[in-house]
Amino acid sequence: MPLTPELRTPNPVLPTGYSLLEVLVATAILAIGLLAIFGLARSAQQRSLDASDLAAVQLTAETTLNELLAKQAPIEPIPPRPIDGARDWRLEVKLYHSPRSDLVTVFLNAQKFSPQDNRPTGISFQLVRWVSKNRVRLMGSPSGPFFGNSLPISEFDDPYQ
After folding, report:
1. Is the dihedral of CA 83, 81, 150, 73 positive or negative?
2. Sheet holding 78-82, edge to edge
3. Which of 53, 59, 101, 128 is the most exposed place for a label (fewest CB within 10 A)?
4. Burial of 136 (0-12, 13-18, 19+ CB in 10 A)
5. What is the rounded end-to-end Cα distance, in angstroms, of the chain?
């Protein structure tokens, strides 16, 4: 006569569940996987913020240069200033003598600084354009355009050396 489910008894030799060791190993594997995923998510978030900062830096530098070239702002040196929308970035405008005597090199430099010690990190973005000398106004010059070869911009280092 076959045994019905009511008459069957569990075999005491065969385990009916998971052992404590199996549960601990499964939990450890799950924890390691979750830590790796959270680490990747944090890294992806940081890269996203860095990309957003760089986009704001590029947009600000290009806008500043376009304002200078469109005569919306005087072409003059601008000391380093923070960039809105970009953490720890500064933008500056420098003027240099050009190899051609009728042109001035306008050099925009955006540079990232370390938030801990306020030192440059080595990450930067530059734009360079050449403009006619008669469009340049030097800082502290109330008359605006300058003429001649006496540009007081030799105090700046040449960006190409």
Report:
1. positive
2. 78-82, 89-97, 103-113, 120-132
3. 101
4. buried
5. 101
Reply yes or no on whether the pLDDT at 6 is more than 80: no
pLDDT band at 5 (very low <50, low <70, confident <90, very high): low
Beta bridge partners of 82: 90
What are the C-alpha distances in Å from 20 to residues 14, 34, 119?
16, 21, 53
Separation CA 94–CA 105 (nearest Å):
8
107 pLDDT above the threshold of 70: yes
Q: Which residues of 77-114 are buried (b: 16+ CB within 10 A; e: fewer)?
A: bbeeeebeebebbbbebbbbbeeeeebbbbbbbbbbbe
Q: Which domain holds residue 94?
A: 32-135
What is the C-alpha to C-alpha distance for residues 138 and 104, in angstroms, rounded to an integer?
Answer: 11
Here the CATH number for the domain that contains residue 71 is 3.30.1300
Q: What angle do CA 62, 139, 114 make, to 5 degrees?
A: 55
Whose tokens are 């990450």? That residue is 123
Q: Where are the beta strands (DSSP E) in 33-158?
A: 78-82, 89-97, 103-113, 120-132
